[in-house]
Specification:
Shape: globular
Largest sheet: 17 strands, mixed
Number of helices: 14
Structural class: alpha+beta
Radius of gyration: 26 Å
Length: about 650
């Protein structure tokens, strides 16, 4: 093993000069130990090891760093500059080195790697997955052909996710932040496109690769627990400044037509669906008309299936509900708006040929994207939204779109992909999103306080499990106001009654409910179970609103993993089908066929709501009939009495 340079991660900017430390020669060592954790740097072969409380909490793999044409081998020289430790790293390419700058700070340190001489190619930093224990973060995950519709591992290393286009412009809800069961975390800086693999490209290795520019920067966080690392990231990304959804949208479901009809929706079918839900006594604050209403994608005119849009909206209002409409920034070439926008330069331009609109692929073919950074294009697009509200009485919108694509050129050279996320958020924030929310992401988007909806799911039990794991993933990267995909799934299929009932029950114990498939088309018992789930959610609403207010004050998730509350419970780190709603309510829904499941309870005493008893420890073969959602109230907290009053 090579010689080691030891540097305390808590070293502040001026520590080196205050302690009288001289620049470090290549053959000498430095040992400064502060705040109880340490960064060890092995000279040859080069390796970084982070220790906290005597335990390894993060370690680089071999090779630790690579780039186009070479890998890092050893530390050639080192010195201090402005309180940072600067290393010159030798590589297998005799013409190139890598400069690694380590910037110490309280409970964290920064890493900035640059290929020297400068390179336009990729640069990757690689970590040993096992060194961190279990891994979480990132948000929605993908693995090759598997996208977040049917794929979401928890913890991450159990699924070997791979995202070769990781960045602010992708449609998936992703976040450049990961944290571990051992209290370490990584926050990746920069808005470029990255390749991210957790054990997929190389077994047991977390590969973080910046695809262009020859530079990569990150912050390493070190804390006692995973929850504390998450809280540090909230300090970086920001907590919600407001909740985009008013109280009534937490209390009752929003009903969207997509999974009920897909694009075959008609005016009469939509109204019959809404009336059926209303007449069955199932609450609804909004009925939202999804895809299938416009003449062409990109146009804001109703097609022939909707002969009287104004009358349709009026009838929804007479049911005591609001009316919502699905819209997008995508415009297909056969639309009138595409021709107009292209002629006036209101679509994003092609990076390859800026004289032409950028052409992207989405699930409805080829399209251009309205350029929100162009003030005229932005005003034109929003003018059409306001016209729909004025002409027909539309109350709000479901925005379903990408704001940018990597193949496009920005309106100005100084605008990044993350800037387009910000522009999209600013535009959407001017409208009622009706509890459907918006898919706007990347560090800082948390401040907007939007409801965040998952990507579509298949209509089966496996997808329900994916939905639950994805809610936990989104909640633990800073988005507390989450809603699952439409109850029952929405990926071109229809659920059976068991899936629909169990999905409704699970959704009842999440922050908001997002519905589509009507139970009215099933038997009376299904309608009753569904109605019971919605009524349960209504009873939980005062508690959920208190958790919302807590999230606004602290950034704390509403829906969280069990290990946030009990970090010493090692079994909790791999629980995939339970969660805490707030700190006081443990939810253990049935996510498979059948009427029983095992339940893992955290420390202390819990009140079993279904069986009116106090229980402790794990429960095996817990019976939960088709109308039962297993709920457990933590005893002895400030919420115990109010929760029991609401649930009994």
């Amino acid at each position: 093993m090579g010689r080691t340079i030891s540097l305390a991660v808590a070293l502040a900017t001026a520590v080196a000069s205050c302690l009288g430390l001289a620049p470090v020669a290549a053959a000498s060592g430095l040992s400064v130990d502060r705040s109880g954790y340490r960064l060890d740097i092995d000279r040859a072969p080069f390796r970084l090891t982070v220790r906290h409380g005597g335990q390894v909490v993060l370690r680089t793999a071999s090779p630790a760093i690579d780039f186009d044409g070479g890998t890092v081998t050893n530390v050639r020289s080192s010195h201090y500059s402005a309180g940072n430790l600067v290393l010159s790293l030798g590589t297998t390419d005799p013409a190139r080195t890598v400069q690694l700058t380590i910037g110490p700070g309280e409970h964290r340190f920064s890493l900035a790697a640059q290929v020297r001489p400068p390179s336009a190619g990729r640069l990757g930093v690689h970590y040993d997955l096992a060194s961190g224990g279990h891994w979480y973060g990132q948000g929605e995950t993908t693995r090759g052909a598997q996208d977040p519709i049917a794929f979401q591992p928890w913890p991450l290393e159990t699924g070997q996710p791979l995202d070769p286009a990781f960045g602010p412009a992708e449609y998936y809800m992703t976040e450049p932040f990961w944290f571990t069961s051992r209290g370490s975390g990584l926050y990746l800086l920069g808005n470029g496109v990255k390749d991210v693999s957790l054990g997929n490209r190389h077994p047991g290795v977390f590969d973080l690769t910046e695809l262009a520019g020859g530079e990569l920067s990150a912050t390493v966080l070190v804390r006692d627990t995973a929850r504390e690392v998450f809280q540090d990231y909230v300090g970086i990304a920001g907590k919600p400044e407001k909740s985009d959804a008013p109280d009534y949208q937490y209390r009752e479901p929003v009903w969207n037509s997509w999974a009920q009809f897909y694009t075959a929706v008609t005016q009469q079918g939509f109204l019959d669906w809404a009336r059926g839900i209303h007449d069955a006594g199932i609450p609804a604050h909004t009925f939202s008309l999804d895809d299938g209403w416009s003449a062409h994608y990109g146009d804001f005119t109703f097609n022939a299936k909707f002969p009287d849009p104004h009358g349709m909206v009026d009838q929804v209002h007479r049911l005591g509900a609001r009316f919502g409409l699905w819209v997008s920034l995508w415009a297909n070439p056969d639309s009138a708006n595409y021709a107009l926008a292209a002629s006036r330069g209101w679509l994003l331009k092609s990076k390859a040929d800026p004289a032409k609109p950028c052409t992207v692929q989405w699930w409805n073919g080829s399209a251009g994207i309205v350029d929100l950074a162009n003030p005229e294009a932005n005003a034109w697009y929003q003018g059409q939204l306001h016209q729909l509200m004025t002409d027909y009485g539309v109350d709000g919108f479901k925005f379903d779109t990408r704001f940018f694509d990597e193949s496009c050129a920005p309106y100005r050279p100084d605008l990044s992909m993350a800037d387009y996320q910000r522009l999209g958020a600013q535009m959407a924030d001017g409208y009622d999103l009706q509890g459907v929310g918006i898919r706007s992401h990347w560090t800082g988007a948390q401040r907007n306080g939007f409801v965040v909806r998952e990507i579509d799911k298949e209509a089966n039990f496996a997808a329900l499990g994916v939905a639950v794991r994805q809610l936990l993933a989104l909640s633990t990267v800073g988005y507390p106001f989450v809603t699952s995909d439409m109850i029952g799934g929405s990926d071109g299929q229809h659920p059976d009654r068991q899936v629909l009932i169990r999905w409704a029950q699970a959704a009842a114990a999440t922050p908001l409910m997002y519905a589509s498939t009507s139970p009215v088309g099933f038997d009376a018992q299904t309608v009753q179970y569904y109605r019971d789930a919605v009524r349960l959610h209504e009873r939980l609403t005062p508690y959920i609103l208190r958790q919302r207010d807590r999230a606004l004050a602290t950034g704390e998730p509403i829906m969280k993993p069990l290990f946030f509350e009990d970090p010493q419970d090692q079994a909790a780190y791999t629980i995939t089908d339970e969660w805490l709603l707030g700190d006081g309510l443990l939810v253990a829904p049935v996510l498979t066929e059948g009427t029983s499941r095992d339940v893992h309870l955290g420390h202390g005493a819990w009140f079993d709501v279904a069986n009116h008893r106090v229980v402790r420890g794990d429960l095996h073969d817990y019976h939960a009939g088709p109308g039962t959602l297993p709920l457990f109230v933590r005893m002895g907290t400030g919420d115990t009495d109010s929760l029991l009053a609401a649930l009994l």
